[in-house]
Write a structure and sequence with these properties.
The structure holds 2 protein chains of 2 kinds.
Chain A lengths: L1 E9 L5 H17 L3 E17 L2 E13 L1 H13 L3 E8 L1 H23 L4 H10 L1
Chain B lengths: L5 E4 L5 E4 L6 H4 L10 H4 L12 H4 L3 H16 L9
Antiparallel strand pairs in B: 1-2
Classes of the chains: A alpha+beta, B alpha+beta.
Chain lengths: 131, 86
Protein backbone atom coordinates (compact mmCIF):
# COMPACT_ATOMS: atom_id res chain seq x y z
CA UNK A 1 0.00 0.00 0.00
CA UNK A 2 1.35 3.36 -0.97
CA UNK A 3 0.19 6.91 -0.49
CA UNK A 4 -0.77 8.94 -3.48
CA UNK A 5 -2.20 12.32 -4.22
CA UNK A 6 -4.44 12.69 -7.23
CA UNK A 7 -5.07 16.22 -8.34
CA UNK A 8 -7.34 16.98 -11.25
CA UNK A 9 -8.92 19.95 -12.92
CA UNK A 10 -12.60 19.93 -13.83
CA UNK A 11 -14.23 22.13 -16.44
CA UNK A 12 -15.26 25.33 -14.58
CA UNK A 13 -18.60 25.35 -16.38
CA UNK A 14 -19.53 21.96 -14.94
CA UNK A 15 -22.22 21.95 -12.29
CA UNK A 16 -21.40 21.30 -8.64
CA UNK A 17 -23.30 18.00 -8.75
CA UNK A 18 -21.15 16.80 -11.61
CA UNK A 19 -18.01 17.34 -9.57
CA UNK A 20 -19.58 15.46 -6.66
CA UNK A 21 -20.45 12.65 -9.05
CA UNK A 22 -16.85 12.38 -10.25
CA UNK A 23 -15.61 12.36 -6.67
CA UNK A 24 -18.07 9.65 -5.69
CA UNK A 25 -17.04 7.55 -8.69
CA UNK A 26 -13.35 7.80 -7.86
CA UNK A 27 -13.99 7.08 -4.22
CA UNK A 28 -15.91 3.94 -5.07
CA UNK A 29 -13.11 2.73 -7.36
CA UNK A 30 -10.54 3.21 -4.61
CA UNK A 31 -12.53 1.71 -1.75
CA UNK A 32 -13.77 -1.25 -3.79
CA UNK A 33 -10.18 -2.04 -4.76
CA UNK A 34 -9.15 -2.17 -1.10
CA UNK A 35 -7.70 1.32 -0.90
CA UNK A 36 -8.56 4.14 1.44
CA UNK A 37 -9.51 7.74 0.77
CA UNK A 38 -7.99 9.97 3.44
CA UNK A 39 -9.13 13.31 2.17
CA UNK A 40 -11.09 14.89 -0.64
CA UNK A 41 -10.37 18.55 -0.96
CA UNK A 42 -12.18 20.84 -3.32
CA UNK A 43 -9.72 23.61 -3.87
CA UNK A 44 -12.17 25.63 -5.89
CA UNK A 45 -11.85 27.67 -9.05
CA UNK A 46 -8.45 28.94 -10.00
CA UNK A 47 -6.91 30.65 -12.97
CA UNK A 48 -4.81 28.25 -14.99
CA UNK A 49 -1.22 29.23 -15.67
CA UNK A 50 -1.71 28.42 -19.33
CA UNK A 51 -4.56 27.57 -21.64
CA UNK A 52 -5.76 23.97 -21.55
CA UNK A 53 -8.33 22.95 -24.18
CA UNK A 54 -9.39 26.58 -24.56
CA UNK A 55 -9.98 26.91 -20.82
CA UNK A 56 -8.45 29.73 -18.85
CA UNK A 57 -9.94 28.66 -15.54
CA UNK A 58 -10.39 25.36 -13.81
CA UNK A 59 -11.92 23.75 -10.74
CA UNK A 60 -9.22 21.96 -8.75
CA UNK A 61 -9.92 18.83 -6.73
CA UNK A 62 -7.38 16.96 -4.61
CA UNK A 63 -7.61 13.33 -3.47
CA UNK A 64 -5.29 12.01 -0.77
CA UNK A 65 -5.37 8.23 -0.81
CA UNK A 66 -3.51 5.11 0.15
CA UNK A 67 -3.91 2.42 -2.47
CA UNK A 68 -2.16 -0.03 -4.76
CA UNK A 69 -0.71 0.86 -8.12
CA UNK A 70 -3.44 -1.03 -9.97
CA UNK A 71 -6.16 1.06 -8.37
CA UNK A 72 -4.35 4.25 -9.24
CA UNK A 73 -3.96 3.04 -12.79
CA UNK A 74 -7.70 2.47 -13.00
CA UNK A 75 -8.39 5.92 -11.55
CA UNK A 76 -6.14 7.52 -14.13
CA UNK A 77 -7.85 5.63 -16.92
CA UNK A 78 -11.24 6.86 -15.68
CA UNK A 79 -10.06 10.43 -15.40
CA UNK A 80 -8.73 10.31 -18.95
CA UNK A 81 -12.09 9.15 -20.24
CA UNK A 82 -14.20 11.74 -18.43
CA UNK A 83 -15.02 14.73 -20.59
CA UNK A 84 -15.35 17.21 -17.73
CA UNK A 85 -11.83 16.52 -16.46
CA UNK A 86 -9.30 18.67 -18.27
CA UNK A 87 -6.08 17.58 -16.62
CA UNK A 88 -4.87 15.34 -13.83
CA UNK A 89 -1.68 14.42 -12.03
CA UNK A 90 -0.86 11.67 -9.55
CA UNK A 91 2.02 12.02 -7.14
CA UNK A 92 3.40 9.39 -4.82
CA UNK A 93 3.87 10.89 -1.37
CA UNK A 94 4.93 8.16 1.06
CA UNK A 95 8.64 8.44 0.33
CA UNK A 96 8.53 12.18 0.87
CA UNK A 97 6.62 11.80 4.14
CA UNK A 98 9.16 9.26 5.40
CA UNK A 99 12.01 11.57 4.51
CA UNK A 100 10.41 14.46 6.38
CA UNK A 101 9.89 12.33 9.47
CA UNK A 102 13.52 11.35 9.41
CA UNK A 103 14.61 14.98 9.29
CA UNK A 104 12.21 15.85 12.08
CA UNK A 105 13.44 13.13 14.42
CA UNK A 106 17.03 14.10 13.65
CA UNK A 107 16.29 17.71 14.55
CA UNK A 108 14.62 16.72 17.80
CA UNK A 109 17.56 14.54 18.78
CA UNK A 110 19.94 17.35 18.08
CA UNK A 111 17.87 19.84 20.05
CA UNK A 112 17.71 17.47 23.00
CA UNK A 113 21.46 16.95 22.93
CA UNK A 114 22.06 20.67 22.75
CA UNK A 115 19.82 21.60 25.68
CA UNK A 116 21.42 18.95 27.91
CA UNK A 117 24.98 19.96 26.99
CA UNK A 118 26.86 23.10 27.98
CA UNK A 119 25.10 26.09 26.45
CA UNK A 120 27.95 27.71 24.54
CA UNK A 121 25.51 29.95 22.74
CA UNK A 122 27.39 32.07 20.19
CA UNK A 123 29.49 29.28 18.67
CA UNK A 124 26.43 27.13 18.27
CA UNK A 125 24.38 29.74 16.55
CA UNK A 126 27.09 30.18 13.92
CA UNK A 127 27.18 26.47 13.39
CA UNK A 128 23.43 26.51 12.98
CA UNK A 129 23.56 29.23 10.37
CA UNK A 130 26.19 27.37 8.37
CA UNK A 131 24.22 24.19 8.25
CA UNK B 1 21.67 39.69 -5.45
CA UNK B 2 23.89 41.33 -8.06
CA UNK B 3 23.11 44.75 -6.70
CA UNK B 4 24.57 43.77 -3.34
CA UNK B 5 28.12 44.02 -4.60
CA UNK B 6 30.19 46.94 -3.42
CA UNK B 7 33.05 48.66 -5.10
CA UNK B 8 36.19 49.09 -3.09
CA UNK B 9 39.33 50.92 -4.08
CA UNK B 10 42.59 49.24 -3.33
CA UNK B 11 45.81 51.15 -2.86
CA UNK B 12 47.08 49.73 -6.16
CA UNK B 13 44.19 51.35 -7.98
CA UNK B 14 42.64 48.01 -8.87
CA UNK B 15 38.95 47.71 -8.30
CA UNK B 16 37.92 44.95 -6.01
CA UNK B 17 34.44 43.63 -5.75
CA UNK B 18 33.01 42.40 -2.56
CA UNK B 19 30.07 40.10 -3.00
CA UNK B 20 27.82 39.08 -0.17
CA UNK B 21 27.80 35.38 0.47
CA UNK B 22 24.57 33.90 -0.79
CA UNK B 23 22.72 31.48 1.42
CA UNK B 24 20.20 28.82 0.63
CA UNK B 25 16.73 30.02 1.62
CA UNK B 26 15.57 26.51 2.42
CA UNK B 27 18.52 25.72 4.69
CA UNK B 28 18.31 29.01 6.56
CA UNK B 29 14.56 29.03 7.07
CA UNK B 30 14.47 25.30 7.69
CA UNK B 31 11.93 24.61 4.99
CA UNK B 32 11.98 20.84 4.64
CA UNK B 33 9.18 20.10 2.26
CA UNK B 34 9.09 21.73 -1.14
CA UNK B 35 5.61 20.87 -2.29
CA UNK B 36 4.33 21.33 -5.81
CA UNK B 37 1.07 22.77 -4.44
CA UNK B 38 2.82 25.63 -2.69
CA UNK B 39 2.65 28.12 -5.54
CA UNK B 40 3.58 31.07 -3.37
CA UNK B 41 6.90 29.51 -2.44
CA UNK B 42 7.70 28.19 -5.88
CA UNK B 43 6.88 31.40 -7.70
CA UNK B 44 9.75 33.09 -5.88
CA UNK B 45 12.04 30.94 -8.00
CA UNK B 46 10.42 31.47 -11.38
CA UNK B 47 11.08 34.97 -12.72
CA UNK B 48 9.04 36.69 -15.42
CA UNK B 49 9.89 34.40 -18.31
CA UNK B 50 8.77 31.47 -16.14
CA UNK B 51 12.15 29.80 -16.38
CA UNK B 52 13.57 28.16 -13.28
CA UNK B 53 16.01 30.48 -11.55
CA UNK B 54 19.57 29.13 -11.69
CA UNK B 55 21.42 28.33 -8.53
CA UNK B 56 24.14 30.84 -9.21
CA UNK B 57 21.60 33.63 -8.89
CA UNK B 58 19.26 32.37 -6.19
CA UNK B 59 21.98 30.80 -4.03
CA UNK B 60 19.94 27.67 -3.29
CA UNK B 61 22.07 24.65 -2.36
CA UNK B 62 22.19 21.69 -4.71
CA UNK B 63 20.02 19.42 -2.56
CA UNK B 64 17.23 21.93 -2.38
CA UNK B 65 17.60 23.04 -5.98
CA UNK B 66 16.92 19.49 -7.09
CA UNK B 67 13.77 19.23 -4.99
CA UNK B 68 12.72 22.68 -6.14
CA UNK B 69 13.18 21.60 -9.75
CA UNK B 70 10.96 18.57 -9.27
CA UNK B 71 8.30 20.60 -7.52
CA UNK B 72 8.24 23.32 -10.18
CA UNK B 73 7.96 20.74 -12.95
CA UNK B 74 5.07 19.01 -11.22
CA UNK B 75 3.34 22.34 -10.69
CA UNK B 76 3.75 23.13 -14.38
CA UNK B 77 2.17 19.85 -15.29
CA UNK B 78 -1.04 20.67 -13.46
CA UNK B 79 -1.17 24.29 -14.67
CA UNK B 80 -0.29 25.88 -11.36
CA UNK B 81 2.80 27.45 -12.91
CA UNK B 82 3.36 28.41 -16.55
CA UNK B 83 5.82 26.70 -18.88
CA UNK B 84 6.53 29.99 -20.56
CA UNK B 85 4.95 33.40 -20.70
CA UNK B 86 3.87 35.02 -23.93
Amino acid sequence: MRNYEIMFIVDPNAAEEEIDKINAQLESIITSGGGKVDKIEKMGKRRLAYEVDKHREGYYVLFVTSANGDIIKECERRLRVMDAVIKYITVRTDEEVRRLEKIKSYRQKRAARRSSGAPAAPAQSIEEAMQ
Amino acid sequence: MRSAKDKEKRPGGQKQYYRRKKVCKFCVERIDSINYKDVKLLSQFVPERAKIMPRRISGVCSHHQRRLNDAIKKARNIALLPFATE
